[in-house]
């Protein structure tokens, strides 16, 4: 049985899979080139919430990665769309200045109507988190929105660092509230990428370094998934992932993953 028969589309994670900060990972550009040369559709799906769309596109361009129009999907853009759809015009943004630029915010002083959390090292401090907690306690109708619940990520110095997930959980615990999360691994995120076509997931493969958010999330949404041993991957992650949604395969790099798909779909 061929694991990747019928594949027409690859969803690539970005940070930890193709690059880490401003450094390309080995074989990243070759992986993209070989996938496109084989006629596969290439999407980029990322939980990045540290920088806005404009800055992210600039960073990717500097690395030689240029998504086609409509092919870049981020947890931040989905969260901003949700805030707009919910009519939230004065969110308290625990986001970087770059990421905050993606949100439509009306001037209103301290009269906030919601809290939005992403990866923002300068904002996820005791003072700002306490401010968010007070807002959520004082205004039960104000929703808590999380770009995603990522536990940690690999930074450019090689060290693992906290993601926004632990801070979201802290606010939930302090306020007795549940956050709405919008990025991977939520089924809604993958649906927003693939569209309403019920057959689309069966023709797509997710390639990423996160056993839960990338691999298990994709498999639970009907895609196939390849976990790569780069970025935040730690030995044994595939065994620690959701036992009911294991990755379809595990490869050393994104390039190895693409070549496995191309060999197997023939």
Describe the structure.
Pfam families: Hydrolase_6, Hydrolase_like. This protein folds into two domains: 9-47 and 184-264, HAD superfamily/HAD-like (Rossmann fold, 3-Layer(aba) Sandwich), CATH 3.40.50; 76-181, Rossmann fold (3-Layer(aba) Sandwich). It has a six-stranded parallel sheet. The mean pLDDT is 94. It has ten helices and 14 strands. Helix 1 (28-37) packs parallel to helix 10 and helix 5 (126-138) packs across helix 6. With 266 residues, it is an alpha/beta fold. It starts with 8 loop residues before the first strand and ends with a helix. It is elongated, with a radius of gyration of 18 Å.
The structural class is alpha/beta
Low-confidence stretches: none
Query: Biggest sheet, in brief?
Result: 6 strands, parallel
CATH topology of the largest domain: Rossmann fold
CATH class of the largest domain: Alpha Beta
Radius of gyration: 18 Å
Terminus-to-terminus distance: 12 Å
SSE string, helix = H, strand = E? EEEHEHEHEHEHEEEHEHEHEHEH
Assembly classification: single chain
Give the rounded overall mean pLDDT: 94
How many domains? The number is 2
Total number of beta strands = 14
Family: Belongs to the HAD-like hydrolase superfamily.
Pfam families: Hydrolase_6, Hydrolase_like
Cofactor: Mg(2+)
Keywords: Magnesium, Metal-binding
Task: Please provide a brief summary of the model.
Helix content is 35%, strand content 18%. With 266 residues, the protein is α/β, with parallel strands linked by helices. It folds into two domains: 9-47 and 184-264, 3-Layer(aba) Sandwich (Rossmann fold), CATH 3.40.50; 76-181, Rossmann fold.
């Amino acid at each position: 049985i061929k694991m990747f028969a019928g594949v027409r589309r690859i969803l690539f994670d970005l940070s930890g899979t193709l690059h880490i900060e401003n450094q390309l990972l080995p074989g990243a550009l070759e992986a993209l080139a070989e996938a496109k040369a084989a006629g596969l559709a290439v999407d980029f799906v990322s939980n990045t919430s540290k920088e806005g769309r404009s800055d992210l596109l600039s960073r990717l361009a500097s690395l030689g990665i240029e998504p086609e129009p409509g092919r870049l999907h981020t947890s931040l853009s989905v969260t901003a769309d949700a805030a707009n759809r919910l009519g939230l015009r004065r969110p308290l943004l625990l986001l970087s200045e770059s990421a905050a630029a993606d949100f439509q915010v009306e001037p209103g002083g301290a009269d906030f109507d919601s809290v939005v959390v992403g990866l923002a090292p300068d904002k996820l401090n005791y003072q700002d988190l306490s401010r968010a907690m007070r807002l959520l306690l004082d205004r039960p109708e104000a929703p808590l929105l999380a770009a995603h619940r990522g536990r940690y990520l690999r930074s450019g110095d090689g060290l693992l660092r906290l993601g926004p997930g632990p801070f979201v959980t802290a606010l939930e615990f302090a306020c007795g509230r549940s956050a709405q999360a919008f990025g991977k691994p939520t089924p809604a995120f993958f649906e927003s990428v693939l569209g309403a076509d019920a057959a689309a997931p069966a023709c797509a493969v997710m390639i990423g370094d996160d056993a839960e958010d990338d691999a298990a999330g994709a498999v639970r949404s009907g895609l196939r998934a390849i976990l790569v041993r780069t970025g935040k991957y730690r030995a044994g992650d595939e065994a620690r992932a959701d036992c009911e949604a294991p990755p379809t395969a595990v490869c050393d790099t994104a390039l190895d993953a693409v070549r496995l798909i191309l060999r197997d779909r023939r």
